[in-house]
Amino acid sequence: MQEVDVSSENVDPPDWLPDPVRIARVVCHELGRERWAVSLLLCDENRIQELNRTYRRTDEPTDVLTFAADEQRGVDDTEAAIEGDVAVSLPTVERNAAAFEVPVIEEFLRVYVHALLHLAGYTHDGYDLSSANAMDHPMLGLQERLVKQLDKEFLS
Predict the structure, then answer these.
(1) Beta strands across the sheet bearing 82-89
(2) Is it the case that residue 128 has pLDDT exceeding 80?
């Protein structure tokens, strides 16, 4: 199984959206995982805030939410499939891209790769993502290496 089911709610998929299946294929291959099934919801800030409030008890919008099918899976379980749901707020991704002065495709890659790593069992619990040394964290360093690799494919 190698699939990504993409749906949208309250937004139209933009012309700039890179292929989520190709992204998942690259990330999962780099992680040594050959089986994956991801449901990707592209949505607006209201919908992601509703999901965040319902499932994370945080009443505010965010850029990405990840719901792993197996929250107990570890990163070393390479025999297990990467499975779960991902929600991405496209308006938040676009705003963050402008704020960080990066192409919107790069920012989408960043949040989607981040979500895929969570589905594979990676965590950054207790780590401030906005800190100056955030990329020193193993998950975030891996995320940025993968984004850089994917940037070459999608932005060249």
Answers:
(1) 2-9, 36-43, 82-89, 64-68
(2) no
Residue 155 — pLDDT band, cuts 50, 70, 90? Answer: confident
Q: pTM for the full model?
A: 0.91
Q: Are 90 and 42 in contact (CB under 8 A)?
A: yes
Q: Which domains does the chain have, with CATH numbers?
A: 2-155 (3.40.390.30)
Q: Are 72 and 120 in contact (CB under 8 A)?
A: no
Angle at 110 between CA 103 and CA 27, to 5 degrees: 125
Pair 120, 75: CB distance under 8 Å: yes
